[in-house]
Amino acid sequence: MSATLTFWVVVVAVGALNYLSRLSFIALFARVQMPSLVARALRYVPAAMLTSIIVPAVALPGAGPSDPVLGNARLAAALVAAAVAWRTRSTSATIVVGMAVLWLAQWLLRAAA
Amino acid sequence: MRDMSPPLIGLLPFGLVCGVAAQALGVSAWGVLGMSAIIFSGAAQIVAAQLIAAHAPVAVIVLTCFVVGLRLMMYSAAMAPHLKPLSARWRHLLAYVLTDQAFAATIRRFGTSGDPYAGASYFLGTGVLLWTTWQASNLAGYWLGNVLPAAWSLDFVVPLCFLGLLVPALEDRPTRAAALAAGVAVIALDPLPMRLSLICAGLIGIATGLAMEGRGKR
User: Fold this and answer.
1) What's the CA gap between B15 and B21, in Å, rounded?
2) Is the ipTM of this complex over 0.95?
3) Do B187 and A55 touch (CB under 8 A)?
């Protein structure tokens, strides 16, 4: 298979499967009644899934550049940002403070190293 | 529009990173746009680009991206009751714009008002804005991504945005237990292939939330 053809086969196949995943339960539960256990479980989807996405991006070196300076800076920035999110309930403030702490921590750790 | 700015800010650097990854494959601007429009998922696009670059077999690439995208099924289930009053055509359209960001930004909106269409129109508006930003940032990544210094760590905006959406969702003991269990599980299960840790940790978190809920009532 040529490189271009491989690329487009992957794009179309992944796109189709992603779309079916997105549609799956929206289509199913429009027709059948949702079991009550599932309905209760849905309440925990945001807490469980958002945490599963955030934690590796912050804590696992493989997710970002595998540099201890950067790793520690990310952890510090995430902890401060979580406190800001808790106090302000503002996502914008969380992002701004988190990035500011990340840059400051990177600069301090590099200066110390 | 104001509440949408954090997810949009979070999406820009993520889209840039995806555009850079696609550009590294040597595809045209149409290729980048086709990828971002057809797949419309940053995680799947990055994984696909990395595996294509590594010359992995097509079946492996497609399967891996499918597993990475399994969380979309959970979002689909969580959105389902809210989209039920809509026509099939609208449900099919809204399913296309269902992403991590659209889900996280919209799910709290449902249920707060009695009008079933209010939440759905908010979801549609959110989805269209995110979609447009996504295509633009992917193209921008294709053209100027290599100019941005990696030391700026702009990709960190993505977890920060999700953190800002997560913290208000931790409203009681069961939700906090769900997050804690998912966080521990995702680290413990990290060695699993195909990023299965993501979906497994999500399921473990949900089960923990349900278990804590039962204990709180008794």
Assistant:
1) 10
2) no
3) yes
